[in-house]
Amino acid sequence: MRVLLTGATGFLGRAVARRLVDAGHAVAAFVREPDAELNTLGVDQVQGDLASLDAVVSAATGCEAVVHCAARVGSFARIDDYYDINVRGTDHVLAACEIADVRRLVFTSCAGVVIEHGDLNGVNESQRVAQHAPTPYLASKALAERHVLAANGPGLATIALRPHLLWGPGDTVWLPKLASLARAGRLRLFGETGKKIDHCYIDNAADAHLAALERLEPGAAISGKPYFITQGEPGPAEGFINGLLRAAGYPIEMRRLSATMTRTLAATAGARRTFGGADPLLTPDTVALFRQATWFNIAAARRDLGYSPRVGTAEGLARLSAHLARERMRGR
Question: N or C: more exposed end of the chain, with fewer CB within 10 A?
Fold first, then answer.
């Protein structure tokens, strides 16, 4: 089928584009600027902005489905920016589906929409969406997810996928920050020891999007539902961080910040970024993700989507290590 893909130049969007092309789908990427890698994949590129409903409608016309990965991420945007892109942009996608008679919409949400206060140990999709999200980004994603699932009906089938802590080759979020701090000797762990988290290797998240797309249609059992997408291998947060460090060629980190220092650094992250330039690792968003247990039951995704993490964590770390070694060789 012909699929409109938003966010195709992002970390997840690129992986989804590759997976859709490999599966034989015709992909039209909705982009702000032309992208060389997407050209190499043979993806059609339609320039536009989610802020323009006309542009989204034009891009969606002639498509049978939309995979909506685009989002404003990060910790330092204005609340209006998160709302304009993550909520209003999603509303434009929903409107475009109705106007252009698109009958399938796969929406990339995030597991963080259920994070509020307290540990989340193996919760499933019955866990309520947070009433008071800890950060503007998570609040905007929660609101966008509500709009998408509420739009499900006879004319448009919708589904929300909730991957958690994406990582792997091409990561522009976690690993660059960890590596920068490790090089400078300034990396510290934080949060309570032993709190379990789960995460998601990038190719597994892309597989889940393909699986959802190919099973979704009006009236399908999966329509109108959210699904958690992870490795299904929960473990201590420090194990995840040190696994990434080892893959990047850095020693593991055992030093840990106190709870008071963690709160102080997170609260002052914006000011430190303004005066120091680089994006700090310790931000309100990071603390929200790592201060408590956040791992999820993926039985529903296994049952309904046929989702099974194709790349285990150990294999994913080996792939990441090999990728980074090749990148270092190219840089010499």
Answer: C
| Cβ 204 vs Cβ 309: under 8 Å | yes
pLDDT given for residue 75 in this prediction:
67
Residue 208: CB partners within 8 Å, gap ≥ 6? Answer: 161, 163, 227, 229, 301, 305, 307
Fold for the domain defined by 2-170+200-230+296-310: Rossmann fold (3.40.50)
What is the C-alpha to C-alpha distance for residues 88 and 327, in angstroms, rounded to an integer? Answer: 38
Q: What three-state secondary structure class fits 105?
A: strand
Q: What totals of helices (H) and strands (E) does the chain contain, helices first?
A: 14, 13
The residues, ordered by sequence, that sit 6+ positions from 80 with a Cβ below 8 Å of its Cβ are none
CA-based torsion, 84, 31, 305, 201: positive or negative: negative
The verdict on whether 137 is a catalytic residue reads yes
Domain boundaries in the chain? 2-170+200-230+296-310
Between the CA atoms of 32, 38, 39 and 44, what dihedral angle is there, to the nearest 10 degrees? Answer: -70
Give yes or no for a contact between 191 and 158, defined as CB atoms under 8 angstroms apart: no
Any idea how long the chain is? 332
Q: How many CB atoms lie within 10 A of CB 133?
A: 20
What residue ranges in the chain does DSSP mark as E strands? 2-6, 26-31, 44-47, 65-68, 104-108, 120-123, 157-163, 166-167, 196-197, 200-201, 225-229, 235-236, 294-296
Q: Which of 118, 195, 18 is nearest to 29 (CA)?
A: 18
φ, ψ at 167 (rounded to 5°): -150, 165
What 3-state class would DSSP assign to 171? coil
Catalytic residue among 137, 201, 227, 307: 137
Q: What is the pLDDT of residues 200-221, one digit of tens each?
A: 999 999 999 999 999 999 999 9
Q: pLDDT tens-digit profile of 37-67?
A: 999 999 999 999 999 999 999 999 999 999 9
Task: Find out whether 172 and 11 touch, Cβ atoms under 8 Å.
Answer: yes
Residue labelled with tokens 């609101």: 143
Phi first, then psi, for residue 295 (nearest 5°) are -135, 155
| pLDDT exceeds cutoff 80 at 268 | no
